[in-house]
Design brief:
Elements: H1 3-29, H2 34-45, E1 56-61, H3 63-69, H4 76-88, E2 93-96, H5 106-119, E3 122-131, E4 135-139, E5 150-152, E6 166-167, E7 169-172, E8 175-178, H6 180-185, E9 194-195, E10 208-210, H7 211-216, E11 228-233, E12 241-244, E13 248-251, H8 252-265, E14 269-272, H9 274-289, H10 293-315, E15 319-321, H11 324-346, H12 357-362, E16 370-375, H13 379-385, H14 391-402, E17 412-414, E18 418-423, H15 430-439
Parallel strand pairs: 1-10, 1-11, 2-3, 2-11, 3-5, 14-15
Antiparallel strand pairs: 3-4, 6-9, 7-8, 12-13, 16-18, 17-18
């Protein structure tokens, strides 16, 4: 192939890779694939779906409990009663995923405070209240129970009301306040840092019981003995509902427990989108430089499968990566390769694989060279007389003879036995053509 054609292909490949990289960087930096990322991660979670450890119990303030006690919020004497019952049953710690801010009935408040003092196993929730007028305010329990240990229940949630990042702790009032997940698991991290919960844990496998059973004393103490207990709401009528990927809408306490279960399994690591983006660029560069279309297809298809399924093995080990920028880059390269294939097929003879006359016309370098055209007479009759699928062997024999004297020619094949190539105009080639004419008087053997 002429040197001018080769340099053009190299420049085209470089430009395609460069613009794909720029587009992929913009895609990743603006987080354009967030929705698809969440859906794909949820799909991968289903590949390693597993049960919770069972060491954390949820006491649900659900519809059954609301029917028994009445409308929400409950009098604090009910929470005092639950505290006493769970403490007596041997609960390790009791986490109230409920905000107890502001005074209510003084007798009820005093009864709850006394129950907390007796138990000394309770952790209360501290949260941040945001308003348009006052801005951000910390919401603490009422002073009568302020000596009870606190943990934050705040996090950020997305458009789907799903929580993908849980804080280890938040700095409030100049000191770190651990999150429920961090305290429940006994694992801490940097202040204001977050981790990704493992939603491949089945929330329905978390041991749970209605608060109604606790208040009625109709439960086996062994169910909570030696275990941490989270008391939280799980009713549409109360709210505090979040979307758990792969499961659906459930109470926020499930998110706290899944976060704790994640930390109990190890330390989550979030590597972001850059590693697989760079790897995708490497695969793209390799595919663009392949001449064989089958190799290109295997590379791209194999990498797409690796992107879709491969991270599941890492996520089972709490290593989380984003794949959509890399997938975006790979899709762009796939489109480029498909367009090249379509264009290539329009410039190539389907039988022999030689460039056709359209390719000859597109070769601008040939405008400064002499064009030689040879036609094999009765070519169609010769092909018709050959066994099926033998035309390619015939063409190979013809090209082999046309190549005598020079191995660097690019030959173009037209219909009806037409073959063409370029010669340098200053090079004497008349005697060579005469020699070829004589050479073709000798017979060609095809398929015996």
């Amino acid at each position: 192939m002429p040197s001018g054609k080769k340099s053009k292909i190299d420049r085209t490949t470089f430009k395609a890779l460069l613009w794909t990289a720029v587009a992929g960087l913009i895609f990743g930096l603006i987080g354009f694939g967030e929705i698809a990322e969440d859906l794909l991660r949820t799909f991968r979670n289903s590949l390693h779906w597993h049960k919770a450890s069972g060491q954390i119990v949820l006491v649900k303030i659900d519809d059954e409990a609301l029917r028994q006690v009445g409308r929400w919020p409950w009098p604090r004497r009910n929470h005092a009663q639950m505290t006493d019952a769970l403490t007596k049953a041997g609960a390790k710690r009791i986490f109230f995923d409920i905000s107890f801010f502001g005074a209510t009935n003084s007798a009820d408040d005093r009864q709850f405070a006394e129950a907390l003092e007796r138990s000394r196993r309770v952790v209360l929730a501290m949260r941040i209240r945001r308003s348009n007028t006052a801005g951000v305010q910390d919401v603490y329990p009422l002073p009568a129970i302020a000596s009870t240990p606190l943990a934050t229940i705040d996090w950020q949630y997305n458009w789907q009301n799903a929580v993908w990042q849980i804080p280890y702790s938040l700095e409030r009032g100049g000191r770190p306040v651990p999150s429920f997940a961090s305290l429940l698991s006994g694992r801490s991290g940097a202040v204001n840092s977050t981790f990704m919960p493992d939603y491949s844990i089945d929330p329905k496998s978390i041991p749970s019981i209605s608060a109604a059973r606790i208040l009625q004393g109709q439960f086996d103490p062994a169910f909570v003995r030696g275990r941490d207990v989270v008391v939280g709401t799980d009713s549409d009528g109360i709210g505090d509902q979040y979307f758990l990927p792969g499961t659906g809408k459930m109470g926020g306490s499930y998110v706290h427990i899944i976060g704790a279960e994640t930390l109990k399994s190890g330390t989550p690591h979030y590597w972001g989108w850059l590693p697989l983006f760079l790897a995708s660029l490497g695969v793209a560069a390799l595919a663009l430089t392949r001449r064989n279309h089958l190799q290109q297809t295997v590379l791209i298809a194999g990498w797409v499968l690796a992107l879709l399924f491969g991270p599941a093995a890492l996520e089972a080990r709490l290593i989380f990566l984003d794949i959509t920028p890399g997938l975006f880059v790979t899709c762009i390269i796939a489109v480029i390769l498909v367009r090249r294939l379509i264009r290539h097929r329009g410039l190539v003879n389907a039988v022999s694989g030689l460039p056709n006359l359209n390719a000859l016309r597109a070769n601008r370098a040939g405008r400064d060279q002499a064009l030689i055209v040879a036609r094999v007479l009765n070519y169609a009759d010769v092909v018709a007389a050959l066994p099926t699928d033998s035309e390619r062997q015939l063409v190979e024999q013809i090209i082999s003879r046309l190549s005598i004297g020079s191995s660097d020619r690019t030959f173009y094949q037209g219909d009806g036995g037409i073959f063409a190539w370029f010669e340098e105009p200053r090079k004497p080639f008349g005697h060579h053509i005469d020699a070829l004419y004589a050479l073709f008087r000798n017979p060609i053997r095809v398929a015996n």
